[in-house]
Write a structure and sequence with these properties.
With 71 residues, this protein is mostly helical. The protein contains four helices and no strands. The chain has one domain. One of its GO terms (cellular component) is membrane. It is found in: Membrane. It is a multi-pass membrane protein. GO terms for molecular function: oxidoreductase activity. It is an enzyme of class 1 (oxidoreductase).
Length: 71
């Protein structure tokens, strides 16, 4: 996920995207990059069908299995 996020930002850097505010019009200028970037950010957040959710899910269940209930 990290490599994907940095790759998208670096690819957009070669175009006219210079600031974070410029990402607001990304869906109109480059829709494929916008979809890829959105999926990557949703995966970071842990939205259920993505890899970020699976990693957090298994991490918390492993912690519960070891008796770390304070998490």
């Amino acid at each position: 996920m990290t490599i994907d996020a940095f790759a998208i930002v670096l690819a957009l850097r070669q175009t006219r995207v210079k600031y974070i505010a410029d990402l607001g019009a990304l869906a109109k200028t480059n829709p494929i990059s916008a979809i890829t970037f959105s999926i990557t950010m949703f995966s970071y957040a842990g939205i259920p069908p993505l890899a970020g959710f699976c990693s957090k899910f298994y991490l918390f269940f492993a912690a519960l299995g070891c008796g770390a209930y304070f998490l």
